[in-house]
Structure prediction request, 479 residues.
Amino acid sequence: MTCSINSLPYEILSSILQEVVSLNTRDAATYTYGLSQAPEPLYDVPVVQKVIRGRVSPDVLRWRAADSLRQVCPQWHDWAADYALGELYIRRWRGSERWLESRNLAVVQKPSLFSVYRDPFFDLKETLRLFTRYPHLALNVRRLWFGGFHVSETGAYIFEILGHCKNLRSVTLPSVALRFGAVEDWSHLLGCGPGFHGVSSLELLGVDLKDSQRSSATNRTDHKALDFRAVNFSFLTRLKIFGDTNFLPVTDEDLRKIARTATNLRELHVTGMSTVSIDGVMALVKASMDHLRVLEYSPLSKDGFEHPESSSVESEEHLCSILTSCSRLENLSISLPTICSDLFTNESVRWQGEVQVRAEKLCRSHKNLALSVDAQDEFWRMLDQARKLMNSRLADGVDLHVEVFISHWIFEPRQTVVHGNFELGEVMSDFTWPVSKRISGKGPYGQTGIYGPGKDEGPYSYISEHAFRDGLQRSYISF
Prediction:
C-alpha cells in the first residue's frame, strides 16, 4: 500500500516544507544589483560595473522560495501562500533607469536614449488587483507595511487592500492615514465591523512632504474619523507613532481621542515627533495603566532634541506617581518636564533592563537647579533613591540599570559616574580638574543624545559623581 506525503500529519508536512523553503532561501540571490555608473546620452562611459545595491526584501525572498511548492498540488499551494503572504512590505518605487544595450557589462556598446518609466504606485495597485481577483489570498496576510504612500490617491488604495485582509494582526501606515481613512475604513481595521478581526499592533509613520503635495487641495482631505464612536481602539495592544511631518501631523488632541477607547495597550512608543507633548502621551498611559508594559516617549523639537518644558503639562498631576502606579510596566524610556525621588520610591515596580529618564528640573521646585544648593541636594538624594531601587530589584533577581538625563549631563547612579563634555571646566580650572576622566560611549548624536547648533558637539567623557560635585562647588561646571 503506497502512502502519499500529503497523508502525513499537517505538523510533520509543514516541517518538511519549511525545510524546503529554508534551503531554497539559502541558495537564492539575497542582494539586488545595479550599475556603478548609469550611461547617459552623449557621454562616454568606458566601463560599467555591476555593484550591490541592497538586500532583497524578506517578503520577496519568501515568495521566490515557495514558488515551486505552489505548483505541486492544492494543499502545498495553500501552505506556500500562507508562508509567502504572511508579511508584506509594499513600497513606493523611486528613481529612474536607462536601458543598457550590452551583453557584457565590461563593454558598453550603445547606451539607450530612453529612460525607463514605472508608475510609482505600481506595487500598491498590483497588490490591490491581486487581492480583488483572488480574495482568499488576502486571508493569509497577517502583517502589512506601507512605505512612501502619503497622498490621498494612495490612501484610498491602502484602505481597499486592508479591507480584503480580514486576518490582519499588525500594520504600519503613513500617519496621514488618520486623515484619509473614513469612519468605515477605520472601524473595519480596528475590528468593529462584522467578519473583521481587529489589528493588535498599529504603527503610524510621519515624513515631510514636498510643497506641491502639501498645497494640493486633494491631499488636504480629513474625514475626522477619530471623532466618531465607531472607531474603537480597544482591541489594540501595541501603538507606535514615530517620525515628524510637515503635513497633517498627529497631535495631542488626536491622542486624547484615541485614549477614549485604547484601554488595553501593552506597548506605547511615541518617538521623533515635535507635534506631540507629554500631555497626549499621558492620556494614553492613564487609559491603559493596568496593562501597559512598555513605554517610550522621545520627543523631537524643530532644532533637535530638547527636554520638554514644564509649560507643556496642562494639569497639576504628578507624573512620577502616575508612572509608578502602572503595575505591569517593565520597560521605560521617557522625557518628562520634571523629575523627583518619588519616581524611584516604589519598590514594587516591575522595571527591568535599561530605564532612561530625561528631564529639565525637579518636581514641585521653583528653585533653579543650576543656582540653588538645596535643589542640587534634592537631586543627589534622588540618585541615592534610584540606587536603592536598583539594589532592591537586584535582590529579587532582576537587573535594572537607571540613567538620568539632566540638561546636557547623563547620570548613571549604579556606576556613580556622570557623562558629558567637560572641556570648558578643564579650561576654567587651568586643567587641574577633573583629576581623571575616561572616554564615554554616550553623548551627542553623531558622536557618542543631543544635537543641533551649540549643543556640546564635542566627544563625551565620564567622571565620578564626587568629581562632578566638586566641579559644581568650584563653579567649573553647572547644570
